[in-house]
């Protein structure tokens, strides 16, 4: 969290995790075979996606879904979260040395990048018009606390 975290909005808090997701997924698809690097990067990405999705669902999507204007914009984003969950499950169930593992990882990386791009360039602008400024700051604090809480939790509930 930045030094001036009181001025932080939910969108700035989410972007911090987005950068980690981009970096982990880009590095992951450059790995090969059943290597320690692949295992570590997959775990880092899986943890990051899990903590981010739980906190984002609770402290951005649900508050937005309580408004008529926010209902439609959240449905698409939630479907993309579900798609990422399914790909993570496939990767978890596939041997790291399997030739198809990298293909699934590349698809996941593509979905992650697409989702983040869409969120940052369309969804955040729409959500920003719906949420009052005070709520954006309150949601940032709640999101960050939930994100930290789930960052190192057992991931079996996700996949």
Automatic annotation (TrEMBL):
It holds the Pfam family Hemerythrin. Gene3D superfamilies: nmb1532 protein domain like. Residues 9-126 form the Hemerythrin-like domain. It comes from the Bacteria. This is Hemerythrin-like domain-containing protein. It comes from Acinetobacter gyllenbergii CIP 110306 = MTCC 11365.
